[in-house]
Each structure stands twice: as C-alpha cells, then as structure tokens.
Amino acid sequence: MLSVDGVTAADLAVSAPAETRRVKTAVAAAGISSFALLYAPQPVLPQLAAQYHLDPGSASLAVSVATGALALSVLPIAALSEIVGRRPVILTSVIASAVLGLLLPLAPSYGVLLVLRALQGIAIAGFPGVAAAYLVEQLGKKGVAAAVGAMIAGNTVGGMLGRLAAGFSAEAFGYHGALTVVGGLGLVFTVLTVLSLPPATRARSRSSLGRQLRGVLAGVAAALGKPILLAQYAVALLAMGSFVALYNAAGFRLTGAPLDLSPAIASLVFLAYAMGSVSSATVGRLVGRFGRVRSAVGALLVTAAGVLLTLPDSLVVVVLGFVVLTGGFFAAHAVANSWAAAEAPEGARGQASGTYTLSYYLGSSVGGTVGSVIYAKAGWPWLVAATVCWLLLAVATVAVTARRGAAM
After folding, report:
1. Tell me: the pLDDT tens digits for 120-140?
2. How many Å apart are CA 132 and CA 75, to the nearest integer?
3. Which residues of 345-359 are buried (b: 16+ CB within 10 A; e: fewer)?
4. Average pLDDT for residues 55-79, to the nearest whole number?
5. Which of 340, 91, 363, 390 minimizes the C-alpha distance to 227?
6. Residue 378: how many CB atoms within 10 A of its CB?
7. Among 57, 208, 230, 305, which residue's beta carbon has the most beta carbons within 10 A?
C-alpha cells in the first residue's frame, strides 16, 4: 500500500504550481506516445486488408489485438503498481511500447505483426492503467477532475497525431513507412516523459510482500463492490466499444463508394479528435456546473446524436457527425474516469483505475471487432444502429445507478 510520507491525508492536494505543471506535462507526453502507438494501424486498415487479402473484420485485429491484450494486462499491472509504485510502471510502459513501435514495421508477416501488437498492448497497459491513480496521489482528489481531463486531452492529441501521421505517410511510403513515422513520434514523447515525470510524493509501504498482496486483493474487491464504480466501468465498456467500432470502419466508408476519398484525405477525419481534446479539458467546469450524472448522461446523448449524423451519404454531414460524436465521447470518458478515480476507496485506487481501464479497452477490442464485422456484413446503417443502442444502454446504467444511490 502507499502511505502518506509526512503529509496529512488532506490529499497532498495543493502541489506547487510548477510541480503541477510538470506532472501534467509528463502524463500528457506519455498519453501522446501511448495513444499514437496504440491506434497507429487504424487509418491504414484498408491498406493492410489489401496487402494481406483480409476483410474489414480481420484487418481490424491489428487494432483489436493490442487493445485486447491491454485490457487483459491492465489489472495485474495496476496491482503491481501498488507494490512497486506508479512511476516505475509508467516509465517502463512508455519505454517498452516505444521500442515495440519501432519494431512493428519490420514484421515479415501479418501474423508476426499481430504478435508484436499484442506485446505492445501489454506494454502500453502500464500507463492508462495507473495514470489516474498517480494523478490523485500527486495532486489530490480536489484537482483530479481537471487533471484527468488534461491527461485525456493529451491522449486525444496523441490519438489524432498518430492517426494523421500514419494516414498521410501511407500514401507515399505504404503502411510500413506509416508505422515507422508513428514509431518515431512515440519515441520523441517517451523521452519527454522520462525527463519530466516527477518522483512520487508518497512513499511505498515497507510492509511484507504477503501483506501487500493481501492488500491488493482487498483493493480489487473494494473496486468491484461499489455500484457507482460499476456504472463507470459500464460507460467505459459501451462508449469505447461504440467509438472504436465507428472509427475502425471509417476508413473503409470514406475510401469506398460513394465518397471515394484517397487514404490521405480520408485520414483527415481524425482531426475530429481536436474536439475531443477541447471537450475533455473542459470537463472540470462541466461537472462543477451540472454535476456528474447530468454531465455523463448529456455527453453520452451528444455522442449518440453525432453517430446518427454519420448516416447520410454526404461528406460534410458525415464529418460533422464524427466531430460531434468525438467531442461527446471524450467528455463522457473524462467524466466517468475522474468519477471512478474520486469514488475509489482509499487503498483501492490502482485497482479501480485498472478496472476502469480494463473495461475501456475490452470495449475497444470487442466493440471494435464486432462493429467491423457488422459493417462488413450489413453496412454502415446497421453499425450506426448497434452503436446507438450501446450508448443508450450506457445512459440507462448511469441514470439507474445514480437514482438508486440517491435513494439509499
């Protein structure tokens, strides 16, 4: 367990402004590196499909294998962070994922590429799995909503930069060159993370390993024992599944009939991530004004509205739909993530953060693959119908759980 090192339990909340900026810079850089690398293959899925004679569902495994491995690894790694500390886990995560990113273009076959992507997913798991807990411990509960919002804004920048870099590089250099460019981008921001991530302000406990492991298991039980936390995990699962399903299929829709865009132009749809950066960074004010329940429900409904806007075969309307759904999704994610971090019991923050992240990337892996199969078999309208249903189920989960909590 982590203990307060000579500081009261008042959260260590008010760090010096310079230290706070350093923390935010480090986690933003780690987010840019991690998310640029994690989703680098997404804009080149049509090229992978053509190279290896794959259907959209099989090509989407280049994304889903990594996110699935991340989902399966995140809880064990989060538990490990309770023993060895958050900072070593984050640093190991960004360094290993960057190295694997540079190896990806050298894969001699699609099978080897998938193996490397699975290993990369495991490596990346160390950052998102413990980052929210790290921020709570460094900055305190009072600042966690704004800090998590800033972190997610960095994540969206990474996702956007990685996808745009891959999309624009693919036309000139093929998917090998595209992955090389993103690997270099990840390396740059990994170095920035290593140089700027502050040491922990709380010391690790000197208790025995057996006692620490018992504490970790108790933390897992606590993270799964609060209904309000379970609701946030459900939001992560359903909303992320919807989001990745749509973006996995976006390249096929935009480069196919009737829109027929080139891969480079089609990759411009990822500029919609800029709206995600804005919406996630303003979550602190949103929650302060409307409360968590209204903010989460509203953001999910905005996401569903954006999904519906992608139905017409009009490029302008489709792009507008992606802008709206991206802004709504990242706002919902930032609310749910900070809500889970704030509601996590003392001693179970790492486990709660890990469970949230597990749900998030399980949604990415399963939802992304299922959505790609739906698109391949039935087309875009059925994919829209499926994802809207998933989002409405997330809305119902938040509303019902909050109502029951208020009644207790």
Report:
1. 999 999 998 788 778 877 777
2. 14
3. bebbbbbbbbbbbbb
4. 88
5. 340
6. 12
7. 57
pLDDT band at 37 (very low <50, low <70, confident <90, very high): very high
Q: How far is CA 37 from CA 165, 327, 399, in A?
A: 11, 21, 35
> What letter would DSSP give residue 225?
S
Q: For the domain 17-196+212-407, what is the CATH code?
A: 1.20.1250.20
Dihedral of the CA atoms 121, 278, 326, 190 (nearest 10)?
-20
Q: How far apart are CA 33 and CA 27, in angstroms?
A: 10
Question: Which tokens hold the place of 307?
Answer: 């999904």
Q: Give the three-class secondary structure for 13.
A: coil
Max CA separation in the chain (angstroms): 64
- Within 10 angstroms of residue 335's Cβ, the number of other Cβ atoms is 32
pTM, two decimals, is 0.75
Residue 170, C-beta contacts closer than 8 angstroms, at least 6 positions apart = 43, 44, 47, 177, 178, 263, 264, 267
Place of tokens 């749509």: 246
CB contact set of 370 (below 8 Å; sequence gap of 6+): 241, 245, 386
Give yes or no for a cis peptide into 258 (omega within 30° of 0): yes
How would residue 11 be classed by pLDDT, with cut points 50, 70 and 90?
very low
Exposure class string for 3-32: b at 16+ Cβ within 10 A, else e: eeeeeeeebbeebeeeebebbbbbbbbbbb
Contact residues for 330 (Cβ-Cβ < 8 A; gap 6+): 152, 156, 275, 276, 277, 279, 280
Phi/psi for 2 (5° steps) reads -90, 140
Whole-angstrom Cα distance, residue 71 to residue 80?
15
- What pLDDT band is residue 3 in, cutting at 50, 70 and 90? very low
DSSP 9: S
**SS3 call for 45:** helix
